[in-house]
Amino acid sequence: MNQSAKITNTNTTSVNIDTPSTGTLSIFKFARARFATMAIGLFLLLSVNPAFSQGKRIPASAGREEFIEVEKNVKLHVTDLGDGQPLVLIHGWPLSNEMYEYQYQYFSRKGFRVIGISLRGFGKSDKPYGKYDFDVFSDDIKVVLEKLKIENAVLGGFSMGGAVVLHYTAKYNAAHISKLALFAAAGPSWVQRPGFPYGLTQQEAEAFANATMANRPQVIGSFDFSGTETSLSKGLSDWIYGINMQASPYATTESIKALAQLDLRPELKKIKIPVAIFHGTKDKLLGFFFAEELHKGIKDSYIVKFENSGHALFVEELEKFNSELEKFAKK
Q1: pTM of the model
Q2: Angle subtended at Cα 72 by Cα 121 and Cα 160, rounded to the nearest 5 degrees
Q3: 119-139 per-position pLDDT tens digit
Q4: Known active-site residue 159
């Protein structure tokens, strides 16, 4: 076959494509209509049913703020768990509200709304340049309690936090609170004064503050929180150290200077609400005499002795600490 014949045959060859039958077209139209109907139904279901609509989702959280502004550009970190009677906890130096981990676990399941506040300069709270004294700390606490609309709370403070809550109670006449709990409190005075021969000398306190500016990790690491060799495990000791090291170095120094200047003795007589004083009998950082002096100065107070604890009574005798605090709160 010659070349032209091949071309002719190619050009004249036709391919037959079957045209769909009427029945097939009807099936296609029915399927398309059914799909459209299902799509519209699904759209309506998602639009009106809260179980399927993200816009209508029921919140899983209580909607509480984790950071509360106490003044322009300064927010404090707050742990706020549980429902019921308010229990507000203030940490020690230079810890944060994380120190109350095992109190949150307990009280949030016991009918309490337990609230831990990290003071400015500590933990996850803002760390601004400025004052770090007990008026500022007390003012900040008052703002937080007002914003959270807290009333009739039990207010607790540990170590330096004990001095903070004492000053707050006296300054604001126990605003928003009905009871006060002191845990190994650094009061009525951290240093020796005329008529108060307890604690560090002014020179020792000054040297201590200066040491925080020279070797802060060593200073913090030298703290012996334990009462006995076995009362505080290495894991818990390391945990406390880790929390301490989160603090602002500037706030660490300035707040301990402010503590050295604080004399709460004249303020004790202003405290008219019930006060529980928790203290370890083996406390090497703040001897048991601090608890005895506070008890003498506060009319409606009593002491709870922790015979097997040093400074870390909140974990050394955890079960007793929580149960005694619960008992005091429910009185």
Answers
A1: 0.84
A2: 25
A3: 999 999 999 999 999 999 999
A4: yes
